[in-house]
Every structure is written in C-alpha cells, then in structure tokens.
Structures
1.
Amino acid sequence: MDLTYETYIGGTLEQVWKAIVDAEYVKQVYYGSVIESTFQAGDSLAYVGPGSQGERTTHVFGSILTCESNRELSFRHFTGKAYNPETDKYESRVTYQLEKIGEAVKLTLIHDQWKENDPSYEGSKKSWPMLLSNTKTLVETGKTLKFT
C-alpha cells in the first residue's frame, strides 16, 4: 500500500530542496498553495492555499519528523478537514529523500504508514506523479506543467 516514486532531476541538491520547501517554489508546484513550517522536528507543517474554504484552505497538515537540508524531509500527514472531516483518524507519513547522482538529483518520495481505508489514498496515488513531474519541470525549465 506504500506509495514510492523515484524521479531524476537535472539540477543541484539546493535547487530541488528549494522546490520542496521554499514557499514561492511550492506555490508553483502545488497549484497556488504554499508550505508553512519552521522545518524543525516536532513543529507544525501545513500546505495552505486556494480551495473550497477560500484562499487559506488547509490541504495537508501535520508535523515535522525529520528535516536535513538538501537531503531529507519527513512529516506526519493528514488531509485538511475540507477533504475529510474525520481526518484525525487517518495519519500517514511523507518522506522526501534527495541524493546527488552525477549531474542529476534523485528525488525519492515515499508516502507510507497508511491507515486502513484512508479516503485520501487514491487521491494521493493520482496526485503524486503530477506533483513530482511539476517539481522536475520547474527545476529544469523554470516553469510548471498545466494539468488543468
């Protein structure tokens, strides 16, 4: 049931890291949502942006498990209440891992520790390839893909 994706990106560790954690880059990858966090273990994390509850709809929230700049980010993952009023029942974990491979960066995304019957599983399975493709395209070209 784990979701695991590997993507190779023509860029530096620093560029790929920025695409994952810097609000201005995240906003481009995540359709107008920004990431809000101190990126310190135990602190909160939220992806907030336009949605069904207005301009500050919380799409995903959780707390930082590990954060090592240019290497790894892992956090507890819950979907926002706009998607599931019982979101607290369905915790999972998201981990980004970065590794330099020649002149490229290998970005591994692992979304695991799913609870049985998590209603966000299918949406995540569908969305991650698009988000990772957007990350790759942004780093390599300075633009994102237009899916809608």
2.
Amino acid sequence: MDKTDEVLKERIDKAKAGNQIAFSSLLDTFWNYVYYFQLDRTKNENDAEDITIQTFSKAFDKIKTYDDNYEFKTWLITISKNIHVDLIRKRKRNVLAGIENSTSDAVKKVLDESPTVEDQLITEQNLATLLSHIKKLKPHYQEVINLRYFNELSYAAIAKELNEPVNNVKVKLLRAKKLLAEIIKSK
C-alpha cells in the first residue's frame, strides 16, 4: 500500500468515526471525479450537480458499510450510477403518467390555469411552515439555504458571497439540508 492509499484509508476510517473534516476532505478529493462522471452521462450541469450532491449525501450516511476491499472511488461511482438510474426511472414514470393524463390535463388548462384562493393559501402556509423550520437552524445554515433556494444563487456565487471555498459551501448546504430534514421529520 503506497502513501496516498494509506492517507485515503485513514480519512475513510476517520469519516466512519464521524469526523467532519475527514468528510470534507473526501468530498474535496472526489467531488470533481463524480461530478464529471455524471456530467458526461447526463449532459446537464444541474442534474450532474444534484446527483453528485445526493451521491455524497448517501455515501456519508452509509460510510460505515463501505468495504475496504473495493476502491472508494468505485464505491462512489456505483452509488452515483444508482441515483442516476433512479432519476431516469422517476422521469419516465412522470412522462408516462403525463401522457395518460394529457387529455384531461389539456381540458383543465383550457378551463383554468390560475391557482384558486385555497391553493394560494395552502402554498403560503407551507412556505411559512418551511421558513419557521429553517429558522431553527444555526445562522450559517440558514444563510446558505436562503442564498441557494430563495435567492437561487449558484454554488460559485454563494462561495463568493460568503468568502468561502465552493466545496465548503457544498458541504455546508448538504449538512443544512440534512438538519432541516431531521427537523421536519421530528414534527
């Protein structure tokens, strides 16, 4: 085993023990590899980015199941491929459902496209609930969520705004989303 393999194994072991710096280091090391792999498959930057984020999220959640007999990079790519396949299947289901409902959807669109007062009220209530959950996060997590999803900034723009490296923004957003999901699930 050469020096780089030993360093990688040490990082993985630390990540398995819950060390956030090790997670960040693994993300920095393998982000571009997974992202460009998916970009080549999807030919879409947004899809590649979303799949890559989901890949690292799932990998970090399941890191204790990682088997050292396989390359870590291969393990990540396998997770990434599975997420991509799931995305394709989901889109196919949505398209097929759309075709089946296309005639009734066309009738609905002709009749009325505007949301009802009830729809607007439900949307406002859901947004208010989501915002109250976001406010339970630490301020730096609130900020990154707001910049990404409400201001719709790219990772690069958020990094510039926060004066942080892009990979830190990615990890922070990943962590913020996980914490927010836990808060929502607990309700």
3.
Amino acid sequence: MLMIFELMKIVVKIRKVTLILVTIIFLVFSSFFTWWLEPETFQTPFIAFWYVMTTVTTTGYGDFVPQTTQGRLFGLFLYFFGIGLIGIVIGKIVEGFSVYRKLKEEGKLTFKGKGHYVIIGWSNKANHAIKEIKQIDEKATFVLIDYAKKSPLEDESVFFVHGDATEKYILEKANIRDAKSVLIFTRANELDPIAADGKSLIIVSSIESYATEINKEIYTIVEILKEKHIPNFEHANVDEFILADEALSDLMAKSAVHKGSGKLIMKLLSSKNDVDLWKIKKRAQWKTYNDAFEDLKKEGANLLADRNDFSILTKLDEMIPTDAEFFIICSKDTYQKVTQ
C-alpha cells in the first residue's frame, strides 16, 4: 500500500505529456494482462479494456467480473492505482483548462482565426463599434489589442491580446495579416490631442511597415482628434480616418441649419434601424449608372454613391468604370437579395 502511495506522489510531479503517455501504456498493458489472466471471462482484449475502463473510472457496471484469485488481485491493484492515476489525469486536464482561461483573459495567447476585425485601443467608442459591427455581421469575430491587465470585455466573439500594437510580435499574435480591417481608437483617458494622434500615427506606421514586409495590404481605419494632423496620416497610407471632434461639430451644425438632418444621419449610422448603408459590387449587365440605378430601385435599394462620388444622379448616362464600388441604402433583407 505504501509503495502505491509513493508511486502516486511521483505521478503527480511528472509532466502532462508524460502523464498521458504513461496512462495510455498503463491502460493498454492492463487490458492485455487482464485478458491473459482470464481469457475465458474476458474473451477479447477489447472486453478486457472495457472492464479496465469501467473499473478505473469507478463506473463499475458489473457485466464482466474476474473469476480467479489472480484476476481479483489485479482488480484490487486497478482500484488503488488505476483510479488514482485517472483522477490525477482528470485533475491535470481541468488544471490545463484553468491555465488556458487565465492566459486568454490576460491576453497572452495567439489568435488563429481569419477574417476578423482588429480593434486597437479600448474605449467606449471601441465597444460601441464592436456592437455595431455585430448588428451588421452576426458572425463577426474581433481581436482587441490593449494594455489592460485582462480582457475588458467578456464576449466569446472578442479575443484579447495584451501588449503594444507597435510591436511586430503583437501584430502577429493578433494575426493582423488575415484581418478584414484594423480599427485604431484613441484611448479613453487620453486628453492631449497631439499625443493621442501621435500614438495613433506610430501604430499606423508600424502596421504599414509590417504590411510592406509581408507584401500584403492591410485596411486601416483611424480615429483622429485634430484635422490638421490628416496630412501626416495620409503619408502613412491610412485607408480611412474619422475626425472625432469635427464629426460631432459638423453633425450639430447641420442639425442647426437643416432641422431634423441630425436625426436622419444618426439613424443611417446606426444599424438598429430598418435601413443601413451597404457596399456592393458592380454587376456585369450594368453598363451605365442608369442601369444600376433602375435595377436597384426595382429591388428596393437606393443607389447613393460610387466610392466617394455622390453625383451619380447627374451622370446616369455615363459608363460605369471597371473599378466602381457602389454604396446603397436599404434594409438588411433587401441587401441580402441584392447581393444574391
């Protein structure tokens, strides 16, 4: 008995991989040994394996029971050593899950998925952006890069990476090369617009440098606090930027002059309403803008723009360029029909 307890102490200290290997060898050996001891009771090695597993897991169906003294003695050995061994294995597995969960919460794991959105910098605006994207795309997944000690958001669709987004290995942990787009937000406690935009510019430069290194385009969208900093971001090849302060001021100014326009724009920006802004590709049968306009109108969608060009209604008879990218306003159901 003392020898068995000494063996169990040794087993507890060995590595998980070694423990699993020892357990497999023990179960296989016990099955063949039981079959060798009582071939009449346990007619095949599989039946012996069934007996061993029901014994060490304390299930004990009793459908197969050793009949000889030798078989029963070995059964006692299985009770003491086998049950203890399986208990340790289960404990190690549970411990492994706990360690995995802790590492995931602390942002120390690497994201393996693709087609996700990378969010850099946690704030209420970043949280709202995640919710809006999920309203549009229910299957969307996110990787959040931030300095927080643990994930600030308990959401299965959000994978947290702790660290500095200017570091190459952090960008690789977020698998930024396979992301749909990267959204860079100003941190909530950042009061100095020069410092905030400067940090965002360094992050963008790091991303663009990495994109050049892997020879792949990475779509970046950046929150900018001051309009005068736009030229610096344009030099860094930012795809889109949102002026945080000016956007609010512009919206309030339009509401003051054209009463009700603010509500209209806010409804368009929010995905909680019946209609939303969607991007679609040019169809092969569309030759002129009028072709696209009429077809979309019949399907219940309003053609708004070709990229940044809102003057489509003034040039309906013009030919559509091959690189056209249309934006339409319609419901989600209509959009799904249009894209089909």
